[in-house]
């Protein structure tokens, strides 16, 4: 808790860390321990007085369900505390020239990543942190995934996979105009299989496709 207080990045994180420092978790665990002791006594009593008509089953079940609910509550609280303290890491992953850097700049409201029409412009990871409702959110713009013989670009792509692994959320960006090349489909299939629960799919440039169709019809 002291470590969290020292490294707090926001007022909300500091407040939560101070609550932890005051012993909120210890107090909760102590109360939980008392409930377990009472439950244990009740279970032992149910065996001790088997011949009597008194039925402890309903009371035991109620107590067990209440303890389970308490444990679920503290797990949820600790997960929320982790988000407040460590923030959320969001990796922007996808094909080359799919508009990842443009999306990155739009999300952080800065022109931090270089944006060009040249595929493979982003070679290294670019990151930026914003504060949203007291929670630090770090976005990572990454090199586009493709087969390449360029040794520097290969290193950038390896970092992209590393960011995918370390991120809490993956924005998987696809080019709405171009299709994924056949030899890259397995790569994306593996990404989806490994990180399905934290992936948000984004199809970019759909408006460009609509504009192309409109122009085509007019021609």
How would the blueprint of this fold be written?
Blueprint: H1 2-6, H2 11-21, H3 24-48, H4 57-86, E1 88-94, H5 100-108, E2 126-132, E3 135-141, H6 151-166, E4 169-175, H7 185-195, E5 199-204, H8 206-218
Helix pairs in contact: 3-4
- Class by SSE composition: alpha/beta
Question: Numbering strands along the chain, what is their spatial order in the largest sheet?
Answer: 2-3-1-4-5
Largest sheet: 5 strands, mixed
| Number of alpha- plus pi-helical segments | 8
Shape: elongated
Classify the beta-strand content into a percent band. 15-25%
Looking at how many chains there are and whether they match, the oligomeric state comes to single chain
Gyration radius, in Å: 26 Å
Give average pLDDT, whole number.
Answer: 80
Low-confidence stretches: 211-219
Describe what this molecule looks like in 3D.
The protein is an alpha/beta fold. Helices cover 55% and strands 16% of the residues. The protein contains eight helices and five strands; from the N terminus they run H-H-H-H-E-H-E-E-H-E-H-E-H. It has a five-stranded mixed beta sheet, with helices on both faces. Helix 3 runs antiparallel to helix 4. It is elongated. The N and C termini lie far apart (67 Å). The C terminus is likely disordered.
Key structural traits:
219 residues, 8 helices, 5 strands, 55% helix, 16% strand, disordered C terminus
Structure summarized in a few sentences:
The protein is 55% helix and 16% strand. It is built from eight helices and five strands.
